[in-house]
Design brief:
47% of the residues lie in helices and 11% in strands. The chain is an alpha/beta fold. The chain has a 9-stranded mixed sheet, sandwiched between helices. Helix 13 links the parallel strand 8 and strand 9. 39% of the residues are buried.
């Protein structure tokens, strides 16, 4: 590939990451202060928010999607008020209030916090602040400047902005999070290795469809969000910031899509992650799946590649063939091997250590040097995170979780011993679910991806 081609690919990836900066933000406004105010006030407030954000927006599609959430929250089915520049000035005077209405003093701060949470960048947010400042007196302009400085710093929030403290904090978390570089992790496997279940385990929610049939026919990019706001975002044919799990399942398997959700990481710092889901390469029904996966491996930009191996189907011809392709096309230091489905082993018939050694020997024969092999049970790990997240497990899921906890409490199933030499010693005894995340192999894999051993 030419240097010019590589430069264009890098530029395209950076542009995608910029677009994803807003897409992968969190917003929790369920107890917004304006909800307690009468409809007339909320109509003026929303109209002002709409005017400001649309006047300053860089990504108009994302801005409109966020505004639709505020519209539903603040005014419901009521028609919004259209604002001209002159009408906006009058609206700002209404919002900022006067000395006879002290409860209105925080409205302007709230408006600018909401504006910043939608625009999510310094330049458009500063432009919005400048627009509002034109309609304020000198005293209120000083207050405005203090708020602008607070948003883009970590300074202590004074009592003056107590009403907006929660939203200032949300903006800071989002801004600091999206300022990180994105760690891109591609996940690939042959069919039925548990690739989608592993992705769900890393997310901590059953987002990706799982079955014994081909689940993915094209690429899906799954982005982490900075905190839990109980919202799923989706870009398929269009952008939607309020999708359900059923909506995700309804996305066509042939469609390239992007999803954003909070990742429940067990004891690790939140990192800005993009998981790239690829089709299974050995689909008997559609050979194009393998072509899509191989093209992604050759052309996509990623920092790590997780290769998922089914521990119950070791050494197949399809596996060896694909592993050779990975060896020839991916730098050795980028590859992490996950030996999955160890929950299917029986202590009488199967040996985890022997399986790990066998996989290591096969990989070394292909040419991999000191391969990183992560033994785990992806399904057990997913159930653990769902339970920790207070999700309602089905009766069958609860039965399986109880069975796995009993099974993995046996010393021969403790997968933490195959990870970092200090990892097994850090298993907490006070929290069974966290302890099981060590034993299931999940904590060890996340430690490799995210770094920072902690309990």
């Amino acid at each position: 590939m030419s240097n010019e081609y590589n430069r264009l690919v890098d530029c395209f990836t950076q542009l995608c990451d910029i677009k994803m900066s807003g897409f992968a933000t969190s917003l929790d406004f369920c107890d917004h202060p304006l909800l307690k105010r009468r409809l007339k006030t909320r109509l003026v407030y929303f109209a002002s928010l709409e005017y400001l954000t649309k006047s300053c927006a860089v990504d108009k599609e994302y801005t409109e999607a966020r505004l639709s959430q505020y519209r539903a929250l603040l005014i419901g089915d009521n028609a919004p008020l259209p604002l001209t520049p002159d009408a906006f000035g009058a609206a700002i005077k209404t919002i900022t209030g006067d000395f006879l209405k002290p409860w209105k003093r925080g409205y302007c701060s709230m408006l600018l916090c909401d504006t910043a949470l939608i625009l999510m960048d310094i330049a458009p947010t500063s432009k919005a602040f400048d627009i509002v400042a034109e309609y304020l007196n000198e005293r209120k302009q000083k207050r405005l400047n203090k708020l602008c400085v607070l948003l883009f710093s970590n300074a202590e929030i004074p009592p003056l902005f107590a009403d907006a403290e929660r939203f200032i904090t949300q903006f800071r978390i989002n801004h600091n999070f999206t300022s990180q570089s994105v760690m891109r992790v591609m996940v690939t496997a042959n069919m039925s290795a548990g690739k989608s279940t592993l992705i769900n385990a890393l997310i901590g929610k059953p987002i990706m469809r799982t079955s014994q049939e081909a689940c993915t026919a094209n690429l899906c990019y799954i982005y982490n969000k900075p905190f839990e706001d109980n919202r799923l975002h989706l870009i398929a044919s269009q952008l939607n910031l309020d999708v359900t799990h059923n909506d995700l399942l309804g996305v066509g398997r042939e469609t390239v899509s992007s999803v954003a959700s909070f990742f429940r990481a067990t004891g690790h710092p939140q990192k800005r992650i993009c998981l790239i889901d690829t089709p299974g390469v050995n689909s008997a029904l559609n050979s194009n799946h393998g072509k899509v996966a191989r093209k992604a491996i050759a052309e996509e930009k990623y920092d790590k590649l997780i290769y998922v191996i089914n521990a119950t189907l070791l050494g197949t011809d399809d596996e060896i063939k694909y592993l050779k392709y990975i060896f020839e096309n991916v730098p050795n230091e980028k590859v992490i091997f996950v030996l999955n489905k160890l929950d299917c082993f029986k202590s009488i018939d199967d040996s985890i250590s022997a399986s790990i050694n066998g996989v290591k020997a096969d990989l070394e024969n292909i040419g991999f040097k000191n391969p990183i092999i992560c033994p785990m049970s992806a399904y057990f790990s997913l159930l653990l995170k769902m339970k920790q997240g207070n999700e309602n497990l089905s009766e069958d899921e609860q039965d399986v979780l109880d069975l796995y906890i009993k099974k993995f409490n046996k010393p021969e199933y403790d997968l933490s011993i195959y990870y970092h030499e200090t990892l097994a010693d850090k298993k907490p005894n006070h929290d069974e679910l966290v302890k099981m995340s060590f034993i299931s192999g999940l904590f060890g894999l996340e430690n490799i991806l995210y770094g920072g051993i902690s309990a």
